Amino acid sequence: MTITIKYFGLLTETTQCHEESINFSGDLVSELLETLFSRYPDLRLKNFQVAQNQALVSLNTKLSGNEIALLPPYAGG
C-alpha cells in the first residue's frame, strides 16, 4: 500500500522533506517507523507522536489509513 507521511516542525529538518509517499507492506505503525528509522537514522533520536488519519495512535496500532503524520512536541499559548 502507498502511505503518505507528513513531517512537522523539527522533523522536517531531520528528513529534509515535509511530505513523502512510500510503498509499505507491513501491518503496524511500529513497523513503518522502523522503515523510516532506516532511511533517517537521526529520526530515532527525536521525540514525536504518530497520528493516523488525524488521530493520535500507539506503536501497536494496525495501519488502516493512507496518511501518517509525525508530530513533534508542541507548546500551547
Automatic annotation (TrEMBL):
InterPro entries: Beta-grasp_dom_sf, Mopterin_synth/thiamin_S_b, ThiS/MoaD-like. Gene3D superfamilies: 3.10.20.30. Transmembrane segments: none annotated. It comes from the Bacteria. Signal peptide: none annotated. Pfam families: ThiS (PF02597). This is MoaD/ThiS family protein. It comes from Snuella lapsa. The lineage of its organism: Bacteria, Pseudomonadati, Bacteroidota, Flavobacteriia, Flavobacteriales.
